[in-house]
Amino acid sequence: MTDTIETISHDSAQKELLSLTRTVKGQVLNAKNMYVEVDCKKPMPKQKIQKTETQKSYKELLNDLSCEVAECQACPLSKTRNNVVFGDGNPEARLVFVGEAPGADEDEQGLPFVGRAGQLLTNIIKAMGLERKDVYICNILKCRPPGNRNPLPEEIRLCEPFLKKQLRLIAPQTICALGSFAAKTLLRTETPITALRGRFHSYEGIPLMPTYHPAYLLRNPSAKKQVWDDVQLIMKEMSLKQS
């Protein structure tokens, strides 16, 4: 009787063990099908970023900003201007020239540096081996002060945010500040232009070279050499060759 029970128990245990082994094997096979094999040695492919239709180019964003400036009524200059002088040139320029304010010719045409001082600036740009279309030109103020007077502190305060947005959109390699008002405004200093010029400063991480305004050179031709010295430093910074 005891021998019979032991035999039955032994046979039953073997059957249960065999059944359990088959079940575990089946689970292992199913598990292999559930997992994806990953080769850690191979880099995962990068997903290509698709540009959406809502993303605008820098040129379009500058145009939007220009439209915003054209509607500006923040200061009394909006009542005396003929045209807003936003800026002109390459929206992806490596070099940006910043002056102080439009003059009579600029106010008439709506473009920066188109008078006698503008022609002198054009000559300087050509001497650098560039064309006006290669650079970007703008001013601290976007409207002409009556009688070409100096910009007032309140006018600068109200208009400067537009300039800051311009420069951030263009993100140039180098900035050239033309004249005392441009240099002092951008560098947040009261140091005279005579002490600022001749060496690079930093504007939000961008090398900035202050130099004399072209209009000053028309009145003081002897300062042209100093301006050319400053321009050559810009050319060296940008790896430009003299034409």
Explain this structure to me?
The protein is of the alpha/beta class and 243 residues long. It is 49% helix and 10% strand. The radius of gyration is 35 Å and the shape is globular. The N terminus is likely disordered. The chain has ten helices and six strands. The N and C termini lie far apart (116 Å). The protein has a single domain, classed as Uracil-DNA Glycosylase, subunit E (3-Layer(aba) Sandwich), CATH 3.40.470.10.
The biggest sheet, with number of strands, parallel, antiparallel or mixed sense and barrel status, is:
6 strands, mixed
Poorly predicted sequence stretches spanning 5 or more consecutive residues: 1-10, 27-54
Tell me which oligomeric state these chains represent. single chain
CATH domain topology: Uracil-DNA Glycosylase, subunit E
User: Alpha-carbon distance between the termini?
Assistant: 116 Å
Q: Any idea what the CATH architecture is?
A: 3-Layer(aba) Sandwich
Order of helices and strands: HHHEEHHEHEHHEEHH
Averaging pLDDT over every residue, what do you get?
Answer: 84
Number of domains: 1
Overall shape: it is globular
